[in-house]
Write a structure and sequence with these properties.
This is Heavy metal-transporting ATPase protein. The protein is an alpha/beta fold. The protein is built from 12 helices and 12 strands. Helix content is 44%, strand content 25%. Helix 1 packs across helix 12, helix 6 packs parallel to helix 8 and helix 7 packs parallel to helix 12. It is elongated, with a radius of gyration of 20 Å. The structure holds adenosine-5'-diphosphate and magnesium ion (MG). Magnesium ion binds next to loops.
């Protein structure tokens, strides 16, 4: 905890907003399924990996690892842009290629109802699905699964037991997020962009809540900064450590409740 003011503040929080990837999950997703729609499986993975080569997002690392295992050679990309909380786009082999959230992919190339229902089925299993669009065609889909941290459920319960509301704020798809929220027993808000996460923190504050935001800071440094107490966790972005008021170093969700308890006991001792 960075200083006395933070130590005092943490014991007073009334709502804890958690990030999903790398915070409540281990943050090492594995590719479980590659689905070929307009392109063959190897192309789907090759295109996605080429785009992800410059990204530090956990999903990017999963895709690159899989392409490495299959020893695919990656085509060069030009004009690449990461779109925070959405995905990555670039030009590959002369065509505009995108990999990212189903919602954003749908704005580039709509999926058929059969394709959508295949993706939904994977979401219901708690898997995150990124869609690959090549030109105006849905090339395929890549599903990834990230394990929950072993103490995630217990760590959230420890907060609710002392009267702190716990909420999951995620950019992931609604069905995936709800499947995970159900396993954890907490309220979920999904399909959020980085600015939406920040706005929700602000809304809570307007309603009189004292807000903690816990996350790795990849794409959501603004929400971390906006919270009354920003807690960095998951070792993601260095910016998180700089922006945050406190940091959890060993990925223990239970440490949030431990910080609250330490704060309360310290304040009692001082008084
Ligand atoms: P979270 O809230 O879990 O931290 P993000 O806001 O980082 O999630 O991303 C939201 C969604 O956008 C992901 O579930 C994924 O579908 C898509 N996405 C974001 N970045 C990438 C990327 N680099 N590669 C593939 N998909 C991505
Ligand atoms: Mg994130």
């Amino acid at each position: 905890m960075k200083g006395g003011a933070v130590l005092e503040q943490i014991g007073k929080i009334t709502v804890a907003c958690f990030d999903k990837t790398g915070t409540l999950t281990v943050g090492k997703p594995q590719v479980t399924d590659i689905i070929s729609f307009g392109r063959n499986e190897a192309d789907v993975l090759r295109f996605a990996a080429a785009l992800e080569a410059g990204s530090s997002h956990p999903l990017a690392k999963a895709i690159l690892r899989k392409a490495g295992e299959r020893q695919l050679s990656l085509p060069p990309t030009s004009d690449a842009n990461a779109i925070g909380g959405v995905g990555v786009r670039a030009v590959v082999e002369g065509i505009e290629v995108f990999v990212g959230s189903p919602k954003a992919a749908g704005e580039r190339a709509p999926m058929t109802s059969e394709q959508s229902s295949q993706v939904s089925a994977l979401n219901h299993e708690g898997k995150t699905v990124s869609i690959v669009v090549a030109g105006h065609e849905v090339a395929g889909a890549i599903a990834m699964r990230d394990e929950l941290r072993p103490d995630a459920r217990a760590g959230l319960k420890a907060l609710t037991e002392v009267g702190i509301k716990a909420v999951l704020l995620t950019g992931d798809n609604r069905r995936t997020a709800n499947a995970i929220g159900e396993q954890l027993g907490i309220e979920v808000q999904s399909e959020l962009l980085p600015e939406d996460k920040q706005r929700i923190v602000g809304q809570f504050q307007k309603e009189g809540w004292l807000v903690a935001k816990i996350g790795d800071g990849i794409n959501d440094a603004p929400a971390l900064a906006a919270a009354d107490v920003g807690i960095a966790m998951g070792g993601g972005a260095d910016v998180a450590l700089e922006t945050a008021d406190a940091a959890i170093l060993h990925g223990r969700v239970l440490d949030v409740a431990a910080m609250v308890d330490l704060s309360k006991r310290t304040m009692i001792n001082i008084r």
